[in-house]
Amino acid sequence: MEEAFRVILWFAFAGLLLTLVASVALWWYESTRRLTRGLTAAIGKAPDAILFDTGTKKAAGLDFTHGDLAILWNLGRHGLVFSFDEIEGAELIVDERVVARTQKGEPRRVLEETYPGASRVVLRLIFNDLETPEFEITLFGDLTTHSAYPKTASEAVQLGRKWLSHIDAVIKRGGPKAPPARPAQSEPHMPPPAHD
């Protein structure tokens, strides 16, 4: 009887340990944490502003100190880092219609409403790069309950407007000519991924 109790106790302990290891692994590899680690590795510090795609496979991060914008896709396996002078502009798209825009050499097209009934909100970042001229991040429209994403279309539009303001400030700030976009590291201590 004592031997059977000992075996049951070992099985219970093994099950608890396995549950704990699985929980830690799920927490560590959760998409927003993984993308945040990738952005931090790409720009060398925690981003000052970060944006996640609701599909949980893409992200963008701004580093105001060094003047970089990192973009990641495929859960951070691929990415690029652009210097601020390589950013051409950004557009906020609501239900397939550009509702606000900031672009080099053009006056800013200001957002006039919050679009509470919108079904999809997308931010398009535009770069001076032949291989990756634009990068779209869906802010609202895909079904998600994660706390990192806006819960309503109005919140998504406000987040998009904030990022348009960041990009507008970056464009107006200008800066010295920098080298072309470099690959972003997807995880700390890993070699840069190949670009698709």
Describe this structure in words.
The chain is an alpha+beta fold and 196 residues long. The protein has a single domain (31-183), classed as Roll (PH-domain like). It is 31% helix and 27% strand. The chain has helices spanning 2-28, 31-43, 153-173; strands at 49-52, 59-63, 68-73, 78-83, 87-94, 97-103, 121-127, 134-140, 182-183. The strands form two sheets. It has a five-stranded antiparallel beta sheet with strand order 1-2-3-4-9, with helices on one face. The protein has a four-stranded antiparallel beta sheet with strand order 6-5-7-8, covered by helices on one side. A hairpin with a 2-residue loop joins strand 5 (87-94) and strand 6.
Question: What are the main properties of this structure?
Answer:
five-stranded antiparallel sheet, four-stranded antiparallel sheet, 31% helix, disordered C terminus, alpha+beta, PH-domain like, 196 residues
What's the count of strands? 9
What is the CA–CA distance across the termini? Answer: 62 Å
The Rg value, from CA coordinates, equals: 21 Å
CATH class: Mainly Beta
Order of helices and strands: HHEEEEEEEEHE
Helix percent reads 25-40%
User: Tell me, what's the shape?
Assistant: elongated
Indicate the structural class. alpha+beta
Spatial strand arrangement across the major sheet: 1-2-3-4-9
Per CATH, what is the topology? PH-domain like
CATH architecture field = Roll
Strand content: 25-35%
